[in-house]
């Protein structure tokens, strides 16, 4: 069978895969070494001195000495170093040695949004949080373009006294480039360099300067200053603003250009370690490493340390969707963010015919030139009848020159093939396809418009009834208030998370499709023509869960500013229990992949709603100890738990897989009737006494009993507990989603405030294990 559809897709999310460093010349490799800091001999004035001294004792005279990379103080107690196998063996014998892990590598995951999120200047969370004033958002990413308008500091408050970060100079980066908006910028490349990356031979910068554009995009999304009149080649014109426009930013660069954009575990741990030391309030990470057990995952380890210090951590869920068990960054102590669409679409007006009887339809396009196609002949036919229309070498250049080609794809075989349009020398094309929603700026190398099949049929009828069909196209059109929105994007990674089945992931979704934000202005963003000539832009449209995580980091900054006493778990709970699950037509949020209702395994608790998250009524709070009990429940060893928590005196705890999480998941076993009783504690965070009544929405085959059904909170901060028994009859189970790999059910538990307006909703999912 021939493929007629060529679809170039480029999604941003960094999938980090595991490679072990193998050097050609010797057996020296990079390791992360966890030490028991209580074993430090008294005569060393610091842990660093102890580690350096330890390293110096490891080599015999004829050997190369170990090379120290980083000392870690917060994410773990220990260091990273390049060691030979014999040095490693000696180290493992020393008192105080806890565990050693080899280096691993991960890859990077690939404006109008504040309005879509309902943020308003005069009411709600923005003024209540004073636009994030005083908060510091740390972004671990590919660097930053400090000259971007989004990082100007006009109107910014002074740098908080507690800030200990710095702005490092380096290649094309001068420390004087930092200001009241960008208050810190550091680069971590030791691990990548040990792998053999010579940054001076790539185009990347050996400094905090962003080469890719990804880090500038995520930073400006989280906390960029408002910038008027931004656009992407005439599309999405408007004011671009970060979610927390008065928050400060600090960049921690770990992603460097290799063949893709990679990060080393040693560098990522060092970046989070410094961010904690520097004093960030929020961390945003749009990258991930392979989903291994948490003790081997630098994001999970780093986020645990951050959480213990009250730092809220938002991470992208990954772009490995749409199937089950594709979740990245699924640790329960961080907030995992999936990607949704929002109500702005970019495209073109397509007018068929002239004058009386002509009609205009909308289509998707991000062709980057200001081009007005006026009354060109519309071509619908075959140059070569043995080929499918618009397939490679199907068009005859003599027939299509100067014309717009109509490529009508059937639903089961749709797509676009701009390269054939370019090859044949047509003036442009209209593709009738279901796939318009998922096209990226990189797909628009030639003037074309993708229309949905409903409009494709209209065009076909028009051509059939017209002697000389003609078409006019106006590009650079921005459609607002598009319905239905949001939808869950197909690429967004889906739950359950493999590593921790007993927490429902993702936690939430946020805008992640065609997000406009700052970009590196010196590198091409929009390829046009068949020679891929790149146009430049200082603002770019990007799609991926990489784009959704910084939205949630920005909301985290606003919530922490409005409620400085809230823990990271409380901030996440507020976001989750107030998230919405209906779209802007009042129907359930749709999964783009299937066109039918999405489930909590796609969107977690729903789409983030910042204004409601400001005032959730009740929260499900958690302490670091709760997560440790969870690790015990997962049967992690004492050593693994010491590595994850950095608590070298940890010995044992009560195992429990039932975290005080704001969502519920029941992994089904192979029996016909199964049940589980969850225990939860709610805390009243409203200013006065309140009482709540439980309401349950349960599907066929899921029996839910809440005890008690009424909770009374005598005052602010009072707590009340309840149990929820969920009983499943397997005989009634069906696919939770048409992707058939989720067999299970889902329902919701809502606590409705009596004589009040708060509703505290949690999804309840049952699904089979992987
Ligand atoms: C950094 O910029 C300042 C002010 O523009 C200048 O005086 C200084 O020489 C620069 N430093 C470097 C290392 O380029
Ligand atoms: C570049 O990435 C490849 C894997 O994609 C890896 O094998 C290689 O070692 C990397 N090179 C450097 C210099 O990091
Ligand atoms: C990196 O590449 C540059 C330019 O080719 C070369 O001068 C330099 O010695 C290299 N550095 C290392 C550490 O290999
Ligand atoms: C368009 O056609 C209709 C009938 O076919 C006629 O009544 C109308 O006057 C025409 N309008 C123009 C602007 O020609
Ligand atoms: C039409 O396509 C067929 C199959 O690829 C090819 O063999 C044939 O040469 C083409 N004919 C013309 C006129 O291009
Ligand atoms: C932990 O180990 C116990 C005892 O072997 C076992 O019953 C339980 O299923 C294990 N838990 C998990 C999450 O694997
Ligand atoms: C472990 O050490 C920490 C301080 O490092 C201390 O607060 C804690 O009480 C200790 N726990 C135990 C069980 O000794
Ligand atoms: C599934 O089985 C394991 C051990 O076989 C048990 O520990 C666990 O509680 C069961 N889970 C459910 C939800 O029944
Ligand atoms: C579950 O129930 C179905 C019919 O209700 C039966 O065919 C099947 O054998 C049962 N499975 C188990 C594991 O009991
Ligand atoms: C709710 O309001 C009604 C009418 O004011 C009152 O009778 C009732 O006691 C209130 N219930 C609660 C739980 O406050």
- Main pleated sheet: 7 strands, parallel
Number of distinct beta strands:
41
> Are any ligands bound, and if so which?
2-acetamido-2-deoxy-beta-D-glucopyranose
Number of domains: 4
Strand order of the largest sheet: 8-11-7-14-16-17-26
Total number of helical segments? 17
Helix proportion range = 10-25%
Radius of gyration: 27 Å
Pfam families: fn3_6, Inhibitor_I9, Peptidase_S8
InterPro entries: Peptidase_S8/S53_dom, Peptidase_S8/S53_dom_sf, Peptidase_S8_Ser-AS, Peptidase_S8_subtilisin-rel, Peptidases_S8_3, S8pro/Inhibitor_I9, S8pro/Inhibitor_I9_sf, SBT
GO cellular component, one term: extracellular region
GO molecular function: serine-type endopeptidase activity
Provide key terms for this protein.
7-stranded parallel beta sheet, alpha/beta, binds 2-acetamido-2-deoxy-beta-D-glucopyranose, Glucose Oxidase, domain 1, 770 residues, single chain, Rossmann fold, 4 domains, globular, Alpha-Beta Plaits, 19% helix
Would you write up a description of this structure?
This protein is α/β, with parallel strands linked by helices and 770 residues long. The protein folds into four domains: 28-102, Peptidase S8 propeptide/proteinase inhibitor I9 (Alpha-Beta Plaits); 113-343 and 489-614, Peptidase S8/S53 domain (Rossmann fold, 3-Layer(aba) Sandwich); 346-475, Glucose Oxidase, domain 1 (3-Layer(bba) Sandwich), CATH 3.50.30.30; 618-622 and 659-768, Immunoglobulin-like (Sandwich). The protein is 19% helix and 30% strand. The chain is globular and about 90 Å long. The two termini are 33 Å apart. The protein binds 2-acetamido-2-deoxy-beta-D-glucopyranose (10 copies). One 2-acetamido-2-deoxy-beta-D-glucopyranose binds at residues 670-672, 731. One 2-acetamido-2-deoxy-beta-D-glucopyranose binds at residues 198, 200-201. Belongs to the peptidase S8 family. Residues 132-587 form the Peptidase S8/S53 domain. InterPro entries: Peptidase_S8/S53_dom, Peptidase_S8/S53_dom_sf, Peptidase_S8_Ser-AS, Peptidase_S8_subtilisin-rel, Peptidases_S8_3, S8pro/Inhibitor_I9, S8pro/Inhibitor_I9_sf, SBT. Residues 658-765 form the Subtilisin-like protease fibronectin type-III domain. Residues 30-104 form the Inhibitor I9 domain.
């Amino acid at each position: 069978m021939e493929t007629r559809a060529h679809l170039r897709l480029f999604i941003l999310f960094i999938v980090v895969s595991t490679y072990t460093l193998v050097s050609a010349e010797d057996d020296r490799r990079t390791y992360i070494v966890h030490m028991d800091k209580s074993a430090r001999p008294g005569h060393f004035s610091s842990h660093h001195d102890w580690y350096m001294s330890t390293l110096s004792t490891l080599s015999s005279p004829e050997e190369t000495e170990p090379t120290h990379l980083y000392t870690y103080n917060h994410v773990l107690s220990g260091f990273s170093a390049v060691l030979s196998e014999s040095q490693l063996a000696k180290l493992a014998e020393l008192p105080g040695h806890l565990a050693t892990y080899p280096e691993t590598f991960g890859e990077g995951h690939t404006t109008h949004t504040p309005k879509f999120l309902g943020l308003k200047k005069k009411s709600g969370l923005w003024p209540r949080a004073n636009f994030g004033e005083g908060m510091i958002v740390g972004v671990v990413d590919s660097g930053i373009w400090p000259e971007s308008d989004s990082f100007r500091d006009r109107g910014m408050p002074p740098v908080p006294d507690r800030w200990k970060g710095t702005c490092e100079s380096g290649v094309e980066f001068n420390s004087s480039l930092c200001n009241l908006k960008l208050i810190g910028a550091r680069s971590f490349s030791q691990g990548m360099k040990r792998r053999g990356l010579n940054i001076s031979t790539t185009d990347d910068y050996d400094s905090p300067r962003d080469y890719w554009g990804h880090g500038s995009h995520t930073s400006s999304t989280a906390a960029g200053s408002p910038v008027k009149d931004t656009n992407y080649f005439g599309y999405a014109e408007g004011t671009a603003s970060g979610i927390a426009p008065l928050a400060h930013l600090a960049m921690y660069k770990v992603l460097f250009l290799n063949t893709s954009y990679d990060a080393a575990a040693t560098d990522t741990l060092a970046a989070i370690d410094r961010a904690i030391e520097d004093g960030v309030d929020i961390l945003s990470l749009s990258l991930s490493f392979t989903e291994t057990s948490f003790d081997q995952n630098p994001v999970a380890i780093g986020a645990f340390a951050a959480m213990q210090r009250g730092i809220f951590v938002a991470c992208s869920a990954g772009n490995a969707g749409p199937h089950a068990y594709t979740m990245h960054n699924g640790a329960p102590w961080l907030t995992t963010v999936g990607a949704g669409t929002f109500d702005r679409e970019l495209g073109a007006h397509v007018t068929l015919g002239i004058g009386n009887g002509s009609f205009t339809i909308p289509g998707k396009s991000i062709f980057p030139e200001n081009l007005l196609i006026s009354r060109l002949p519309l071509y619908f036919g075959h140059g070569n009848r043995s080929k499918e229309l618009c397939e490679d070498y199907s068009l005859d250049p003599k027939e299509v020159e100067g014309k717009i080609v109509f490529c009508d794809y059937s639903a089961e075989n749709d797509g676009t093939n701009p390269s054939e349009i370019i090859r044949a020398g047509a003036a442009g094309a209209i593709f009738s396809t279901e796939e318009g929603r998922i096209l990226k700026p990189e797909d628009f190398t030639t003037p074309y418009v993708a229309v949905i099949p409903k409009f494709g049929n209209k065009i076909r009828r028009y051509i059939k009834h017209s002697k000389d069909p003609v078409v006019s196209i106006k590009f650079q059109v921005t459609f607002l208030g598009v319905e239905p929105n949001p939808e869950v994007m197909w690429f967004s990674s889906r739950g359950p998370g493999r590593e921790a089945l007993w927490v429902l992931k993702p936690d939430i979704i946020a805008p992640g499709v065609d997000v406009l934000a700052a970009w590196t202005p010196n590198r091409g963003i929009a390829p046009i023509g068949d020679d891929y000539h790149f146009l430049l832009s200082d603002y770019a449209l990007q799609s991926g869960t990489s784009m959704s995580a910084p939205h949630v980091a920005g909301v985290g900054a606003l919530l922490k500013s409005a409620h400085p006493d809230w823990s990271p778990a409380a901030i996440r709970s507020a976001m989750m229990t107030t998230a919405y699950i209906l779209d802007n037509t009042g129907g359930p949020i749709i999964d783009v992949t299937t066109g039918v209702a999405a489930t909590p395994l796609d969107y977690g608790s729903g789409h983030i709603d910042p204004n409601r998250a400001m005032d959730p009524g009740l929260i499900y709070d958690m302490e670091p100890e709760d997560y440790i009990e969870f690790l015990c429940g997962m049967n992690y060893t004492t050593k693994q738990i010491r590595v994850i928590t950095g608590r070298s005196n940890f010995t044992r705890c009560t195992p429990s897989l039932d975290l005080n999480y704001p969502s519920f998941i029941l992994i089904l076993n192979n029996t016909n009737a199964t049940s589980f009783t969850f225990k939860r504690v709610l805390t009243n965070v409203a200013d006065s006494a309140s009482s709540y009544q439980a309401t349950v929405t349960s599907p066929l085959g899921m029996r839910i009993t809440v005890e008690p059904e009424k909770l009374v909170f005598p005052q602010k901060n009072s707590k009340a507990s309840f149990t929820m028994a969920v009983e499943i009859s397997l005989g009634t189970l069906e696919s939770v989603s048409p992707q058939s790999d989720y067999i299970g059910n889902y329902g919701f538990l809502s606590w409705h405030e009596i004589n009040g307006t708060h509703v505290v909703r949690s999804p309840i999912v049952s699904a089979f294990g992987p």
